[in-house]
Design brief:
The complex is a heterotrimer of chains A (about 280), B (about 260) and C (about 160).
Chain A lengths: L9 E12 L2 E12 L3 E5 L6 H8 L7 E6 L2 E2 L5 H8 L2 E4 L11 H12 L4 H14 L15 H12 L6 E5 L7 H18 L2 E6 L2 H7 L2 E6 L2 E6 L1 H5 L4 H8 L15 H6 L6
Parallel strand pairs in A: 3-8, 3-9, 6-7, 7-8
Antiparallel strand pairs in A: 1-2, 1-4, 4-5, 9-10
Helix pairs in contact in A: 3-4, 3-5, 6-7
Chain B lengths: L1 H35 L3 H40 L6 H39 L2 H7 L4 H39 L4 H11 L2 H28 L5 H31 L3
Chain C lengths: L3 H26 L10 E8 L10 E4 L2 E11 L6 E8 L10 E6 L6 E6 L12 E2 L1 E3 L4 H16 L1
Parallel strand pairs in C: 1-7, 2-6, 5-8
Antiparallel strand pairs in C: 1-4, 2-3, 3-4, 5-6
Classes of the chains: A alpha/beta (about 280), B mainly alpha (about 260), C alpha/beta (about 160).
């Protein structure tokens, strides 16, 4: 089903990836392509290892099989310093924001600049304020992370992720647990950053509508396999039952409502000692 | 029986893997210290939260322990008519044992548990992961400065504990119970040796600081990244540090004071 | 980071007080002040029995501490105890015929070497030897002799 050749204009290319945690197979020989300058979404129910995929791309986890090529580099055969240099060009937005709790907003956004550049403080100030302006939170620069709402924290984290002007950003569940207004703000931000800065975006999410609104291409993953892919339109018209169930949110379908168990009547009538 | 053996084997296995991870972690932390040295600001901030914030509890405990030693020592020594040697008893027990050990136990409770909770929470809230993705090594940036601060603070805290305790013993001994002040200090000076007592006590506290900081930081770094995992790790820090401190104290005492 | 400077002050205070504590222990509590490796010279004394004498036991003359025992060894040929005494350089006028004896401070106290100056005009120098010595009194021996004697007298 997925035998596309690595396209010359794809920034990230995942090839025949397998990964398992303990006995549980998270990915089973999957291949994905992420095109430059596009928003590519990975969708699927919770627990399918979408976050794991981002960590694999970032080189924080090692695959059992297969390889991941980012901008021509095989992530898992890089030496440590090379990997760190590559990461400077990859931004990642964590689900929780992952802001450093002992620094205020300004210092958080300045953090990657201070760690990786020797810019004078005046220039750092200018850069930080520009990034904060881009996410609309220039006025919040003196707040501490615990004074921010979830949506604000994510926007600050986004400002921090773009501080070093990366070539790509990975968004881990950016819409989860947000009120409609924050969701809207984030959708708008992701889209506009993508077009204005020419970033490549990878969005991992299970929020169907928001993701469909911004994605150029969608992969739907379930139980370690790709069960559907295409543009949002193609996905919406997919003939796969599973994809339909996921997109419409039906309670039962190919993905069962019940956790696998033995027959209900037999189970109630059995007199086993344990359960 | 088989089950018991299986459990034992499993526990041994997990114990050894943890020790292995811990050793590897320690090596990374120590090699990370080199990158702390050019940035003293990182160290200073940690000296504050590790050292200064433990200062109060250590000095107050030191004062009280010294005063109690003064009282108890006086009651026992006066039975033998040897109150004059109160200074020796107070100072020797503080400098050799109580100073390093009690201050290390307090340090594990105050600073160690705080370190574990801090690192564990940073892990649970993906701050460490986030730092890695920003191409910043969390071991160098976060762990090594804290480790160094712990190793530097512990001997200072132990010395303060002993010094304040000795003064406390003198307050009770000569202020309250009438031991001659001159005898208190003179006997102490005549009978405590710089090399054998003071230096060995300082060596002990350096070892304890090293081990406690290692345990605290590793437990935090190795914690299950949930709130339950972090609270368990915090408990483990205090328990494991206490065991290690007391066990090591026995070993060090045998090595240092054994051949007399 | 507006708290930085107060934090720095506290850290400075903490480190300073810790170092003061260490110095206090070194100078006020221990014998570092009285026992800084001052110039000294070594003399040897041979005893039939050096009893419970230890390295670093005090050496005194007329009740004043003037040095320490630096080494104790057993001579395989003469079956004697060879005790090296480190004497402070300022006490360089001990006559050659000085007597060394091992005494006990109090009934149960520690043993020390007592030097009784003689009348010679020559003084002991580095590597010098004390010829006249008196061994440690072994309590069991003394008691045994006393009992033996009183038993003799009763006969």
């Amino acid at each position: 089903m997925d035998n596309r050749v690595s396209l010359p204009n794809s920034l990230v290319s995942v090839q025949n990836l397998s990964f398992s945690r303990g006995d549980k197979k998270i990915f089973d020989d999957i291949s994905l392509e992420f095109e430059r300058g596009k928003v590519t979404a990975i969708m699927g129910p919770s627990g399918t290892g979408k976050t794991t995929l981002l960590k694999l791309i970032g080189g924080q986890l090692f695959p059992k099989q297969g390889s991941i090529i980012v901008d021509g580099n095989n992530v898992h055969s890089l030496r440590r310093t090379e990997l760190y240099n590559l990461r400077k060009r990859m931004g990642m937005l964590f689900q929780s924001g992952a802001l450093l709790t002992d620094m205020n907003v300004f210092d958080n956004v300045a953090f990657p600049l201070r760690e990786h550049t020797h810019l004078p403080e005046s220039m750092i100030r200018t850069l930080v304020l520009m990034k904060l302006q881009a996410v609309g939170l220039r006025g919040a620069r003196n707040l501490m992370p615990n004074e921010l709402s979830g949506g604000m924290a994510r926007r600050i984290a986004l400002a921090r992720a773009i501080a070093l002007d990366p070539m790509m950003i990975m968004y881990d569940e950016p819409f989860t647990g947000q009120d409609p207004i924050s969701k809207g703000a984030l959708v708008h931000l992701i889209k506009s950053l993508n077009t204005i800065l020419g970033l490549t975006s990878i969005v991992v999410s299970h929020d169907v509508h928001e993701t469909a609104a911004i994605a150029d291409y969608i992969y739907v993953i379930s139980e370690g396999k790709i069960v559907g892919q295409g543009t949002p339109k193609e996905i919406a018209q997919s003939e796969s039952d599973w994809v339909q169930q996921f997109m419409t949110g039906a309670a039962d379908g190919p993905a069962h409502f019940h956790y696998p168990a033995k027959d209900y009547v037999d189970d109630l009538l059995s007199t086993g000692r344990r359960y | 029986m088989i089950e018991f053996l299986q459990q034992l084997g499993k526990n041994t296995h997990t114990g050894f893997t943890k020790l292995g991870r811990g050793t590897f972690f320690l090596l990374q932390v120590i090699s990370g210290i080199l990158s702390v040295l050019p940035r003293p600001r990182l160290l200073l901030n940690q000296m504050y939260s590790v050292g200064v914030l433990s200062f109060l509890i250590i000095s107050i405990s030191g004062l009280f322990v010294g005063m109690v030693l003064g009282l108890q020592g006086y009651y026992i020594l006066s039975d033998f008519g040897a109150e004059e040697t109160l200074g020796v008893m107070v100072a020797a027990s503080l400098v050799r044992e109580l100073g390093p050990v009690v201050s290390a136990l307090l340090f594990a409770g105050r600073a160690g548990s705080a370190l574990t909770a801090e690192i564990g929470l940073m892990k649970a809230t993906e701050q460490l992961s986030g730092m890695e993705m920003m191409a910043v090594d969390p071991i160098k940036r976060i762990i090594s400065p804290r480790f160094l601060a712990g190793c530097l603070s512990m001997p200072l805290l132990a010395a303060l504990f002993s010094a304040i305790g000795i003064i406390g013993g003198q307050l009770v001994g000569s202020g309250l119970l009438g031991v001659d002040e001159g005898a208190y200090w003179a006997q102490m000076q005549a009978n405590l040796d710089f090399q054998d007592d003071i230096v060995n006590g300082v060596i002990k506290s350096i070892v304890f600081g090293f081990v406690t900081s290692w345990i605290a930081l590793f437990e935090g770094y190795d914690a299950v990244p949930t709130s339950e995992g972090v609270s368990r790790a915090t408990t483990r820090t205090v328990v494991n540090s206490a065991f290690s401190i007391l066990g090591l104290d026995f070993i060090l005492t045998t090595l240092m004071f054994g051949d007399n | 980071m507006q708290h930085t400077s107060t934090q720095d002050t506290f850290v400075g205070l903490f480190v300073a007080s810790g170092i003061v504590g260490l110095f206090f222990l070194a100078l006020q509590v221990s014998n570092l002040s009285s026992f800084t490796e001052r110039d000294s010279y070594t003399i040897t004394a041979r005893f039939e029995n050096s009893g419970g004498l230890k390295i670093k036991s005090p050496v005194s003359a007329a009740g004043v501490k003037i040095g320490r025992v630096s080494a104790i060894s057993f001579d395989r040929k003469t079956y004697q105890s060879v005790v090296k005494l480190n004497i402070d350089a300022q006490y360089n006028t001990l006559p050659e015929d000085t007597t060394a004896s091992i005494f006990t401070a109090g009934l149960l106290g520690e043993q020390y070497v007592n030097l009784e100056p003689g009348g010679s005009d020559e003084f002991l120098k580095e590597g010098g030897k004390i010829e006249i010595t008196q061994s440690a009194i072994i309590l069991e021996k003394a008691i045994g002799q006393f009992l033996f004697k009183s038993a003799e007298e009763k006969k």
